[in-house]
Description:
By secondary structure, this protein is α/β, with parallel strands linked by helices. It is built from ten helices and 26 strands. It has two domains: 2-8 and 387-495, Immunoglobulin-like (Sandwich), CATH 2.60.40; 19-382, TIM Barrel, CATH 3.20.20. Strands 3-6-9-10-11-12-13-14 form an eight-stranded parallel beta barrel, surrounded by four helices. It has a seven-stranded antiparallel β-sheet with strand order 2-17-19-20-26-22-23, with helices on one face. Bound molecules: alpha-L-arabinofuranose (AHR).
Amino acid sequence: MLDTHLTVRTDSPIGTISPRLYGHFAEHLGRCCYDGLWLGTEQTLVPTYGGFRKDVVDALKAMPVPLLRWPGGCYADHYHWRDGIGERVRRLGLSCGLQVEDDNTLGTHEFMALCRLLGAEPYLAGNMGSGSVQELCDWVEYCNSGLNTSLAAERVANGARKPFDVKLWGVGNENWGCGGNYDAETYAREYRRYATMLRHVDTTIELVACGQEDEWNLKFLQTNQRWLNLMDHLSIHRYWIHGGPELNFTDEQYYGLLSEADETEDFVKRTADYVMDALGTSSHRIGIALDEWGVWHPEARAWGPDGAELHREPITYEQAGTLRDALSIGVTLEGFHHQCNVLTLANLAQIVNVLHAPVMTDGAAMWVTPSYYALQLHLPHIGAKALPVDVTHGATMPGSSKGVSAVTATASSTEAGVAVTLVNRHISEGASVVVNVAGMSRVANAGLLAGDSPRAVNSAQDPDCIKVAPLNVGADGAGLWRIELPAHSMATVELA
Length: 496
Ligand code: AHR
């Protein structure tokens, strides 16, 4: 049994945890958008809200989904928004090597309706790879203009009297790769042209530029040093690919995946440091947009470690989501909270059926993965003030070269009280944890996500194998709370 003491520093808030850090990503890829979210209005398989699966939407609302990025991913750089309004165009849908017939029945108006159903802020990824500056300017005008232009009138004729007022616009996606194989300098110059023109159309939009790793980010920032005010967010992506098989991973691979998740914070911080250096004394702010993140198992990719041997044919981008994957979310969100002053948005990839999905469907069946519950356990932190948590005594996670504690936690406060989410990363040992939180007198709510094995999954046949259960929290003296955490588990305690 691991013995751990944690202290929540209620008097030193780090910053506010923006709801945008709890964003999601819906790409026209595999069964994410079509089938997972959208069935259209002419089917009878399951009830829908105007074509969107009711069971999926209801589950997502309760998760929740404060921000939703669409329509790609790599798909964005082939997407022509006019195909998805009015009379629909049946076009080749292209992303990540898949070619599908895309009937474009899920277009701009449907996506906005989905965001309204979910209570999500829309984030549109624009096409730089195969589009034009004018095409993207037109999409912004179509969505946001309140003037009596032909484009705005077309939007009204298509059913939306009020502008959609979309704030977040991506200028391309992964333009160092699928979005055109640009080099950083060429993309930087192209970005500048797009951003200048887009800002003329709507001065209030926030533009997201495509970043990558250190070298690209530095070159991009240097090339656009004089025009940094044309950028509001710098997009980076992080998929964890070193965790071995989705289900039959070794203990070492279990820790490997959690360490990779842990390192996401360093990547965010390092990228933010480059941005800060570039900005120097300027009062302009550029946030880091981690607009794709999560686990990408070898079964769902032909590239990367183990992908050549383990991938399934055909690649559908679907993978099993275990309790280990859920814990990796908890580890990552700790980092998001630490970096909430520089990380301005984040999108888990992807929202249904594809990659690190919290919700899965199969025909009429729908179930949620352990990762769904991991996100739901973080609900009290959304919009709250992040608080530092010190590990004042604890054991090191096996295999951690950085001396990371086996039990870690993140905390936040609102007027209602303090919420603490704990992760016991140890694969086989339970932990007895004392959490020190000054000034709280009672437990308002406490839930535990645990299972017999970190390899456990939910499925259509066994949808409730892993779910949140009530947790007992003992009072252990003034401001001290005792929590027993099983091995490989996560818990949230809300104190009032
Ligand atoms: O999420 C799947 C793909 O991963 C996206 O389309 C792309 O942006 C990334 O490479």
